[in-house]
């Protein structure tokens, strides 16, 4: 099961913003609500993929920052 999409988020370097569970496009002229279910489903999937990637990178960084276990045995 995938992680839930946050109720408010902006997709990096895009005009797409999720606010109160609804997607909007933001431009100089203002905000336009998105109502196409296919398009909003793609945005939800993309937001979930970005969130999963952020979690994976954070886990790798945490793993890298942990002190490594001492090696036992001889040289390889």
- How many separate helices? 1
The pLDDT mean sits at 84
Please state the CA-atom Rg, rounded to the nearest Å: 20 Å
Total strands? 4
Q: Going across the biggest sheet, name each strand in turn.
A: 1-2-3-4
What percent of the residues sit in helical stretches (DSSP H or I)?
A: 25-40%
Structural class: alpha+beta
Strand content: 15-25%
| Largest pleated sheet | 4 strands, antiparallel
Summarize the model shown.
With 76 residues, the protein is of the alpha+beta class.
List keywords for this structure.
76 residues; 38% helix; alpha+beta; four-stranded antiparallel β-sheet; elongated; 4 strands
Question: Could you explain the architecture of this structure?
Answer:
There is one protein chain. This protein has one helix at 37-65, and strands at 8-10, 16-19, 22-27, 30-33. By secondary structure, the chain is an alpha+beta fold. The protein has a 4-stranded antiparallel β-sheet, with no helix packed on it. A hairpin with a 2-residue loop joins strand 2 and strand 3.
List the helices and strands and how they pair.
Layout: E1 8-10, E2 16-19, E3 22-27, E4 30-33, H1 37-65
Antiparallel strand pairs: 1-2, 2-3, 3-4
């Amino acid at each position: 099961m995938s992680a839930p999409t946050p109720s408010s988020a902006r997709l990096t370097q895009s005009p797409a913003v999720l606010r109160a569970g609804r997607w909007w496009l933001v431009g100089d002229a203002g905000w336009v609500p998105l109502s196409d279910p296919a398009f909003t489903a793609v945005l939800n999937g993309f937001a979930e993929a970005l969130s999963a990637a952020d979690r994976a990178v954070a886990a790798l960084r945490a793993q890298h920052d942990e002190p490594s276990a001492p090696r036992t045995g001889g040289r390889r």
